C-alpha cells in the first residue's frame, strides 16, 4: 500500500468516502509517522494515540452508516493554544504545567463535530510570542527543510512552528494555528505550506489561550490551498460565547478554489519594497505578479503610506493587551505555584519561574506603556496610528482593488540559535514586517508557497483581502499554487 | 524615552514578576531596545485621528442577563495547585 500520510485532506476524504481506506488505517499511519519523527522534529508536545484511535473508530462507523461529516476521519494536529478537554493545553509554557481544561474551544469543537480526529497538541512559541518557535518551554521545533547540502537545523518560523513543521513533514493531514502578528503566515512561508489568517471575528476565540485579544485569530495550516479552504470552512462559525465573533454565514470556501481571477484588480503596495530586502524576495514577488497577470488579473500599483509604523504600533498594542491577559497566571487557579513569604511573593516567584524571557519582556513592556503618565504617549498614540493603518487599506479597497500581493516574509528560514536574532529582540520582530499590518487592520491574509531560495529553502507570497472576502484569497492563492507547483522537503528525519 | 534601572524594578513589581538585581541590566537593555524601536511612532501626525477601539465595524453583542451555566465548582478548581472543599487555597492574606 502507498504511504497514507502522503494524501492531502481532499484526497483522503475521497478515499474514505469510497471506503478504499479506513480512518483507523489513516490515523495509525500518522501515529506511526509521529512516533518515528517527533524525537527529531519536536513538532508535538503531546500525542493522544488512544483518543485518536477512538475518534477514528467512531468516524469509520459513521462513514459506514452514511453519516460522514465534512472532515470525517481526517487526522489533525492542534496547536497547544487551543483548549482541548482533558488534554494537555499549556500554550507551550511552564506556567501552565499540568493544565487540562474541562472544556473544549469552539474551533476544535467545530472540527470534532465535523468528524476530524485529534492526533495531539503541537509545539509553539510560548503564549504565541515569537517568530521562530524557540521560546517554547518544550524546546525549538526543527524545520523539515534544510539548505541544500547542509545538515544545519533551521527554524520553522513561529509562533505556529509546530503546526507548520507537522504539516510539512506529513505528521498530520492539516493543523490548527493562530495568528496575532503573522504566526500562521510566517511559519507557513518558511515551511512551504499554506496558511490563512481569516478576517478578525471569523473564527471564535472562545477557549483559545488569549495573547492580544484585538489581534488574535485562528486559522489553518495545510499542504495546499484546497485543504486550507476545507479546514477554514469547519473552523469558522458564529459563536455567542465570543462577543467579537461575527454573525455571518460561513461560505463554501472550497468552491472558490479554481475560480477565475480574470478581471480581478490586484494591488502591489510600494511600501513593501524594503531597504536591504534580498534580491530573491523581489524576484519572487515579480514572478507572482506575472502569474496573476497571466491568469487575467489586472495589476495596479498602490500606496499604503503608514506601513512602516505597523510593527512599532504592534509592539505597543500587543504587549499592552498581553500584560492584561497574562495577569491571570498567578499560581492560584491553574498550573505552576512557587511558594513565597506572602501572597504577593508567591505571585512574583510563580511568574518569575513560570514565564520565559520573551514573555516576561512583553509583559513588562505592556505594563510600562499602560502605566500612569505613559498611556497617552504610547498606547493612545499607537491606537491612533492603528486607525491610520486601517484607513490606508480602506482607501485602496474603495478604489476598486480586490486584493493585495506582497512577499510573506523578508527572508527564508534562518538557523536555530541565530546569534543576531538572539542578541536583539527587534531583529526577531522584523520577521513579521509584511504580516503584522494585516492583524492591525483585522483583514484576511493567506501565505502560499511560491518558490525556493538560492539555498533551497521555501519562500512564500502573501495575498491580503477585503474584510470577509477569504474566497478571493483562495481563488488567487490557487492560481499562484498552480503556477509555482508543490514543494516538499527531502526526508532526512 | 528610555527606562533606568529603578523603573525596570518598579515595572517588574507592577507586573508581579520577581527580578533579581543581576537580571536588571539585561532587562533594561532589552526594554530600551524595544522602546527605541517604537519611538518612531511619535513622528506620525495623529491630530484629529480617533484611536481604534474595534477593528471590525460592529457593535458588541450583548446576551440576555440570565443564568446560562453553573454548578461546576469541582470543574473550576480541578486545575488549582492547591484547593480544599472546592475553594482555591492561598497563603494567609489577613492577619
TrEMBL record, chain A:
Tell me its EC number(s), please.
6.3.5.7
Asked whether the keyword Nucleotide-binding is assigned, the reply is yes
* Catalytic site: 79, 159, 183
Which chain regions cross the lipid bilayer? none
Q: Which reaction does it catalyse?
A: L-glutamyl-tRNA(Gln) + L-glutamine + ATP + H2O = L-glutaminyl-tRNA(Gln) + L-glutamate + ADP + phosphate + H(+)
Q: What does this protein do?
A: Allows the formation of correctly charged Gln-tRNA(Gln) through the transamidation of misacylated Glu-tRNA(Gln) in organisms which lack glutaminyl-tRNA synthetase. The reaction takes place in the presence of glutamine and ATP through an activated gamma-phospho-Glu-tRNA(Gln).
Designated name of the protein: Glutamyl-tRNA(Gln) amidotransferase subunit A
Organism the protein comes from: Fulvimarina pelagi HTCC2506
What gene is it encoded by?
A: gatA
From TrEMBL, chain B:
Say if the entry is tagged with keyword Protein biosynthesis.
Answer: yes
What's its EC?
Answer: 6.3.5.-
The alphabetical list of record keywords is:
ATP-binding, Ligase, Nucleotide-binding, Protein biosynthesis, Transferase
Recorded GO MF terms = asparaginyl-tRNA synthase (glutamine-hydrolyzing) activity; ATP binding; glutaminyl-tRNA synthase (glutamine-hydrolyzing) activity; transferase activity
Pfam families in UniProt? GatC
UniProt GO BP? glutaminyl-tRNAGln biosynthesis via transamidation; regulation of translational fidelity; translation
Q: Which enzyme class?
A: ligase
Q: Which domain of life is it from?
A: Bacteria
Q: Which InterPro entries match?
A: Asp/Glu-ADT_sf_sub_c, GatC
Reactions catalysed according to its record: L-glutamyl-tRNA(Gln) + L-glutamine + ATP + H2O = L-glutaminyl-tRNA(Gln) + L-glutamate + ADP + phosphate + H(+); L-aspartyl-tRNA(Asn) + L-glutamine + ATP + H2O = L-asparaginyl-tRNA(Asn) + L-glutamate + ADP + phosphate + 2 H(+)
What's the family?
Belongs to the GatC family.
- Give the function comment from the record: Allows the formation of correctly charged Asn-tRNA(Asn) or Gln-tRNA(Gln) through the transamidation of misacylated Asp-tRNA(Asn) or Glu-tRNA(Gln) in organisms which lack either or both of asparaginyl-tRNA or glutaminyl-tRNA synthetases. The reaction takes place in the presence of glutamine and ATP through an activated phospho-Asp-tRNA(Asn) or phospho-Glu-tRNA(Gln).
Binding partners and assembly: Heterotrimer of A, B and C subunits.
What protein is this chain from? Aspartyl/glutamyl-tRNA(Asn/Gln) amidotransferase subunit C
Give the gene that encodes this protein: gatC
Amino acid at each position: 500500500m502507498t504511504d497514507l500520510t502522503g494524501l492531502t485532506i481532499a484526497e483522503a476524504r475521497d478515499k474514505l468516502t469510497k471506503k478504499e481506506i479506513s480512518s483507523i488505517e489513516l490515523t495509525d499511519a500518522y501515529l506511526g509517522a509521529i512516533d518515528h519523527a517527533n524525537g527529531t522534529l519536536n513538532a508535538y508536545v503531546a500525542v493522544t494515540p488512544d483518543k485518536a484511535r477512538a475518534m477514528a473508530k467512531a468516524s469509520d462507523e459513521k462513514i459506514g452508516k452514511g453519516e460522514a461529516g465534512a472532515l470525517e476521519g481526517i487526522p489533525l494536529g492542534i496547536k497547544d493554544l487551543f483548549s482541548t478537554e482533558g488534554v494537555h493545553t499549556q500554550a507551550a509554557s511552564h506556567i501552565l504545567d499540568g493544565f487540562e481544561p474541562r472544556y473544549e474551544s469552539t474551533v476544535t469543537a467545530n472540527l470534532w463535530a465535523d468528524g476530524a480526529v485529534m492526533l495531539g497538541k503541537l509545539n509553539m512559541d510560548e503564549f504565541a510570542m515569537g517568530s521562530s518557535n524557540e521560546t517554547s518551554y518544550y524546546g525549538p521545533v526543527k524545520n523539515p527543510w534544510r539548505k541544500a547540502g547542509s545538515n544545519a537545523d533551521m527554524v520553522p518560523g513561529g509562533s505556529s512552528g509546530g503546526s507548520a513543521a507537522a504539516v510539512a513533514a506529513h505528521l498530520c493531514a492539516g493543523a490548527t494555528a493562530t495568528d496575532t502578528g503573522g504566526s500562521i503566515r510566517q511559519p507557513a512561508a518558511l515551511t512551504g505550506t499554506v496558511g490563512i489568517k481569516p478576517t478578525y471575528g471569523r473564527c471564535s476565540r472562545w477557549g483559545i489561550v488569549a495573547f492580544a485579544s484585538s489581534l488574535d485569530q485562528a486559522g489553518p495550516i495545510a499542504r495546499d490551498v484546497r485543504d486550507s479552504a476545507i479546514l477554514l470552512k469547519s473552523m469558522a462559525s458564529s459563536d455567542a460565547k465570543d462577543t467579537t465573533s461575527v454573525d455571518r454565514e460561513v461560505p463554501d470556501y472550497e468552491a472558490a478554489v479554481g475560480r477565475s481571477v480574470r478581471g480581478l484588480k490586484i494591488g502591489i503596495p510600494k511600501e513593501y519594497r524594503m531597504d536591504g530586502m534580498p534580491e530573491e524576495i523581489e524576484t519572487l514577488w515579480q514572478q507572482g505578479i506575472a502569474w496573476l497577470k497571466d491568469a487575467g488579473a489586472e495589476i495596479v500599483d498602490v500606496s499604503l503610506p503608514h506601513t512602516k509604523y505597523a510593527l512599532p504600533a504592534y509592539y505597543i498594542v500587543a504587549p499592552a493587551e498581553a500584560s492584561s491577559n497574562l495577569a491571570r497566571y498567578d499560581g492560584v487557579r491553574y498550573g505552576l505555584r512557587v511558594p513565597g513569604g506572602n501572597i504577593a511573593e508567591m505571585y512574583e516567584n510563580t511568574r518569575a519561574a513560570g514565564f520565559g524571557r520573551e514573555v516576561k519582556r512583553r509583559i513588562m513592556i505592556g505594563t510600562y506603556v499602560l502605566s500612569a503618565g505613559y498611556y497617552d504617549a504610547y498606547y493612545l498614540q499607537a491606537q491612533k496610528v492603528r486607525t491610520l493603518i486601517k484607513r490606508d487599506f480602506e482607501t485602496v479597497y474603495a478604489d476598486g482593488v480586490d486584493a493585495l500581493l506582497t512577499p510573506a516574509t523578508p527572508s527564508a528560514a534562518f538557523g536555530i540559535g541565530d546569534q543576531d536574532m538572539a542578541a536583539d529582540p527587534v531583529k526577531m520582530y522584523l520577521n513579521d514586517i509584511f504580516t503584522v499590518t494585516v492583524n492591525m487592520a483585522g483583514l484576511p491574509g493567506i501565505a502560499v508557497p511560491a518558490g525556493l531560495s538560492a539555498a533551497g529553502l521555501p519562500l512564500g507570497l502573501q495575498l491580503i483581502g477585503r474584510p470577509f472576502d477569504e474566497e478571493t484569497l483562495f481563488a488567487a492563492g490557487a492560481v499562484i499554487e498552480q503556477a509555482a507547483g508543490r514543494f516538499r522537503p527531502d526526508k532526512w528525519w | 524615552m528610555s527606562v533606568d534601572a529603578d523603573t525596570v524594578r518598579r515595572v517588574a513589581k507592577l507586573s508581579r514578576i520577581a527580578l533579581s538585581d543581576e537580571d536588571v541590566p539585561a532587562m533594561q537593555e532589552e526594554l530600551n531596545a524595544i522602546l527605541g524601536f517604537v519611538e518612531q511612532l511619535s513622528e506620525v501626525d495623529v491630530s484629529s485621528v480617533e484611536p481604534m477601539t474595534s477593528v471590525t465595524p460592529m457593535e458588541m453583542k450583548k446576551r440576555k442577563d440570565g443564568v446560562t451555566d453553573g454548578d461546576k465548582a469541582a470543574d473550576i478548581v480541578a486545575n488549582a495547585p492547591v484547593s480544599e472543599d472546592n475553594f482555591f487555597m492561598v497563603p494567609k492574606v489577613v492577619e
